[in-house]
Every structure is written in structure tokens, then in C-alpha cells.
Amino acid sequence: MQKITDRWIIENTRGYWKPNNIMLRLMEEIGELSREINHQFGEKPKKSTDKNKEISHEIGDVLFTIACLSNSLNIKLDKAFQYTMKKYDKRDKERHR
Description:
The protein is mainly α and 97 residues long. The chain contains 4 helices and no strands.
């Protein structure tokens, strides 16, 4: 995912934004995902003027933005995820049973 994102950024843009700008974009994408979840599962129905969006598409936008942030900071997502899973295995193994 990070390699595909990097290739797209190189071929289609002038480069990665500054990390703080990517973070703001991530918050925007999270907001769009939140709105769609709320429309489909929450108490707030859609306005008749709102377009239907797929939750999976909104998650895809969030993942792309996280890949951009990670790439711009030279963070390998697979390593970050492995660290988190080890932490959860150690700290929370019996917590949610």
C-alpha cells in the first residue's frame, strides 16, 4: 500500500505535503467516514441532497492518507502495526474475554 501510494504521489503531484497538512487532511477524511457511519448506523439521517457514499470508499481515503503521512515521515506501517499487536498481546491478552 505504501509503495503504491508513493508511486502515485511521485507520478501525479509535486510531492508529499508537510506532515501537519497531511494530518489535517486525515482529520477531514475521518470526518467524512464518521458522517457516513452516522448516516447508516446512527441517529442522523441523510439530507435528501447528500450523496450516497460507500463506507469502504471512505476507509480507503483514510488508508491512503495514513500511507501518505507514514511515507512522509519514513515510517513503515507494517512495522508500526507489528509493534502495536505485540503491545496488545502483552497488555490486553486477557482483558476483553
